[in-house]
């Protein structure tokens, strides 16, 4: 009887452990969504300068939210790049921003956050928006992009787009540098503090 209770207790403990493990430990690492034939064609069209074909395919994939999030968000970003750069069309920063925002916030695509953050920071669209750039760099950082962390840290350190906090900004920059982000290491040296925290 005692052995039976120990067996039941062991099974319960094992099942609880299985539910406590992160999804990647239970099901393997998350797979990167590979491009389908339309996206590959659009990428090739970009190389050939057939921007209207590329934009059409990227836009269709961006609108198709039945696909994996990584697929449609990546295609939104690629369509946004065409509008931002004015490739084969009139440059349209507003259309690019809408696509980047959808991809960044709904699609969790850190590269889209960075694209729009740069535009908002520099004012390339004629509308410098430091508060929005800071928000986008933070979003990219939260999504795991170390350049986003460095950008956010730099803005916090300098008080751009919000409250200045030198310690917090320095921490973000140094953590990003420690992961090997070259841009963040350049910022660390430029601000005169060591690449590594605690030094």
UniProtKB/TrEMBL annotation:
Keywords attached to this entry: Repeat, Signal
Entries under InterPro entries matching the protein: HcpB-like, Sel1-like, TPR-like_helical_dom_sf
UniProt keyword annotation of Repeat present: yes
Annotated signal peptide: 1-25
Gene3D superfamilies (UniProt xref): Tetratricopeptide repeat domain
SUPFAM superfamilies: HCP-like
Highest taxon of the lineage: Bacteria
Pfam families: Sel1 (PF08238)
Record-stated family: Belongs to the hcp beta-lactamase family.
Protein name: Sel1 repeat family protein
Gene source species: Henriciella algicola
């Amino acid at each position: 009887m005692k052995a039976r209770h120990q067996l039941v207790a062991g099974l319960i403990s094992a099942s609880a452990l299985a539910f406590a493990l992160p999804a990647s430990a239970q099901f393997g690492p998350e797979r990167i969504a590979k491009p389908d034939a339309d996206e590959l064609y659009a990428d090739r069209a970009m190389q050939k300068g057939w921007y209207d074909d590329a934009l059409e395919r990227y836009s269709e994939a961006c609108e198709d939210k039945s696909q994996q999030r990584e697929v449609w968000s990546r295609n939104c970003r690629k369509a946004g790049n065409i509008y931002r750069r004015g490739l084969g069309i009139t440059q349209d920063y507003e259309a690019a921003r809408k696509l980047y925002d959808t991809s960044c916030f709904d699609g969790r695509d850190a590269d889209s956050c960075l694209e729009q953050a740069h535009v908002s920071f520099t004012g390339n669209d004629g509308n410098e928006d430091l508060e929005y750039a800071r928000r986008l760099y933070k979003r990219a950082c939260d999504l795991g992009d170390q350049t986003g962390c460095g950008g956010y840290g730099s803005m916090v350190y300098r008080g751009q787009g919000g409250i200045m906090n030198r310690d917090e900004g320095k921490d973000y920059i140094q953590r990003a540098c420690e992961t090997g982000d070259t841009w963040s290491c350049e910022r660390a040296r430029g601000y005169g503090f060591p690449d590594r925290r605690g030094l």
